[in-house]
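Dissemination and training. As part of the outreach component of the grant, students in the summer workshop were shown how a complex can be specified as a set of sequence lines and then modelled as a single object. The example used during the hands-on session is reproduced here so that future cohorts can follow it. Participants entered these lines:
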Amino acid sequence: MDDVTRELRRLKGVGEVLAGRLVSAGMDSLEKVAAAGEEGLKAIKGINPRAIPVILSQAAVMSSDASERRLGELRERTAAMGLRVQTMAADVKSRFGEELAGKDGRKVERDLLRIAGSLDTVAVLLEKRRKRAWKVLSKFEKRLSALEGAGLKEIRKGLKKTRKMLLRTGFMEKAGKQRV
Amino acid sequence: MTMLLMKKTPLWIAAKGLLAERGADFFRCWEKTASTFDPEDIHDLRVASRRLREGISLFAQCYPEARINAVRKSVKKVTDALGELRNLDEGLAFFRQAAAEMGEEHGRELSGCITLYEADREGAGKKLKRDLKKMRATSLRKLFVRIVHAPYLFDPPPGATDPFLPIEDFAREGIELRLAPVLALVPAARRPGEAAAQHSLRIAVKRFRYRMEVLSPLMHEEGYRQVHGHVKEYQEILGRIHDLDVFSGLIREAVLSETEEQALGGIIAKKREKSFVEFLDKLDTIPFEAIGATVRSLM
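and obtained this result:
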């Protein structure tokens, strides 16, 4: 059973089969079930019409709880990423020392500063763009993990990719247009 | 501020976060003042510009000198431009209150004075509008953003503070630097005739207060609010004393009859005395040593 079905099964009156049918009808989250309304649920085969109002009110309450939880998780992840960027900067500084005065070092510095700044943008945008923010943070996390213990050149390339990804997804402002 | 600031946060992150917060406040106030030109908004913008300058002065070592100085100069221009209007507003408020207190018999002469001030204020208001427009908030914001987001990281010049120093250590030192002149000036300022020392103490207290405000995200909220309230009260009392000294100069400059000048002088002297007693009481109840100890314990 996947996460979506498990989440839908938390609704009283929704079993495994009905959860599967809801997902097939495009209602793959509590928010979507709540938004479908009576008419939307009546169209699902096998649903008890008398149970519809209860399912809808439960879905509305649960989706708002789930949404708050998700937002909290997103904020925690953003803060954790901020700490990882800080740790990475300290690690780069201690591992590469004087090498950082060169071209690669300057580029790493520039990208780290831009990336650290973009986390403020993520923190502001995540409320409105939760799904996107979740994906971006996952990618971000993966990229930084891949750079642990890497050489300076690799770090430079990895950070450049991360910066571009953040710019492309709208979670980083162009240089000079950052938030204050 | 969206950034999560902790005591161990490295200086390079904390500096740009704390300065960005002060900058956001400054530009928000600027926008509001540009549309309303309300005396309170003008005052708020002036205070916001001073807080930002205090932040810049605190974190100046974290940035290339020429760049941060460019921002500092531009922000100072805004503070200066606002000064004239603010002083006229203060003067007007004083003469209006004095006219109300002194009653009809002195009213005519003072109303002439008030009319002159009102005319000056109108001219100063127009000048300020022109000056603020010339200073271009958008350009300054761009410059500020570009510089604030690029502190030293890997290669600071000799003499600059280590960008990886925990903000807690940096902040403690910063607070002590602003507290020291306050403590040094108190003995002289306690003497009634030492107007210059009282004025210097007012400036030192103001700087200490702004520094506390810049670093407030590092302090426990409840305790901070209380200690900040005490510092603010000190600043207000000393501000009142200073304003009264300025006003006694103003009445000498204003074209007033001797009786009028004496009556006003009497009012000023009485008010100053009252404020000075308040200042001494405050020093006995909440001395600056105690304030310093509380601020240290909050960080």
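Chain A has a mean pLDDT of 88. Students were then asked to discuss how this feature might be tested experimentally.
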